C-alpha cells in the first residue's frame, strides 16, 4: 500500500496542477483573442465606418471571442472597461456609436 500511495499522490498533484494551468491559459487566450478583435473592430470603424464590411467582420470576430470565453470559462472580457463579466450580457453592437 505504501508504494501505491508513493506513486498515486504525486500523480494526483501533477494532475491538479495541470488542470489548474490549462484553465489559466484558456482564460488568457480568451482575453487576448477578445482584445485583438476589439482593437481591430475599433480600427475598422475608424477607417471604414461602423456599417462597413470590415467592421461587420470584426464585430462577428468579437462576438465569437466573447462566446468562446463564455462557453469555456463562463465569463467574458470587456476590453473597453478592462474587466471580466460573469453574466451573459454582452451586446454585439456595443461599438456602433464610438
- Structural class, by secondary structure, is mainly alpha
Low-confidence stretches: none
Global mean pLDDT = 83
Cα-atom Rg, whole angstroms?
A: 19 Å
First-residue to last-residue Cα separation: 66 Å
Number of strands: 2
**Helical segment count:** 2
Helix content: 55-70%
Strand order of the largest sheet: 1-2
Shape designation:
elongated
Series of secondary-structure elements, N-terminal to C-terminal:
HHEE
Major sheet size, sense and barrel closure: 2 strands, antiparallel
- Percent of residues in beta strands: 5-15%
Describe the structure in your own words.
By secondary structure, this protein is mainly alpha-helical. The protein has a domain at 27-85. The chain is 69% helix and 6% strand. It has 2 helices and 2 strands, in the order ααββ. The chain has a two-stranded antiparallel ribbon. Helix 1 (2-48) packs antiparallel against helix 2. The longest helix has 47 residues, at 2-48. The radius of gyration is 19 Å and the shape is elongated. The relative contact order is 0.13. The model has no long low-confidence stretch (mean pLDDT 83).
